[in-house]
Amino acid sequence: MGKNKIRRFEENKTLVNVFQPTREEALSGYExxxxxxxxxxxxxxxxxLELGCGxxxxxxxxxxxxPDKNFIxxxxxxxxxxxxxxxxxxxxLSNVAFLRTxxxxxxxxxxxxxxxxxxxxxxxxQIKFKRAKHRMTHPEFLDRYKKIVKKDGYIHLKTxxxxxxxxxxxxxxxxxxxxxxxHHDIYGAPEFETDAVHxxxxxxxxEGLFSAKGKTITYLRFKI
Length: 224
Prior knowledge:
Blueprint: H1 3-12, E1 18-19, H2 23-27, H3 36-41, E2 47-51, H4 57-65, E3 70-75, H5 78-90, E4 96-100, E5 115-121, H6 139-148, E6 149-159, H7 162-175, E7 178-183, H8 198-201, H9 205-212, E8 218-223
Helix pairs in contact: 1-5
């Protein structure tokens, strides 16, 4: 492990907006479950998750744009989201936190209806058939999200993978879920979602790379 990665891991332990529970803590009843608003955010604002947040730039960008919402970036790689957590502390952003865990355990950290929205940003599409259950919009993952997100809460998928976009559409339609928006190129259609400029103005690290190379970015918004 490189020295910089070790340094980030150690600094994460000191950042007030970083939570790194053990698997045992999650399985035995995590202390923050049901208490994110009261014990950390200190408000009653909506909670929005970003799953697979990487360096955390999307969560931080959304926190800046929407101070009336609370954001939690979730990723297993703490050395990556250190960047976002560090920036949030330096800029006194009190409406964003980071949770280090596997997405497979997400329903162990939030109570029923505790989450208002979920963003899934540029996940690995897991194209090989034998990896299908690892796709973050696989029915088993959707079942986990359904346990924590409000009934009328949105789930958003942003991806450069037409495969994952199409796969997710098929799954949602097969399960009878409500797809409100489906778009194959959010940057190629100026009229798209004019009331949601943040879809284009706030980008993840990979989104910036992909769009600079001319790759199309797709978007889904749905309820489960």
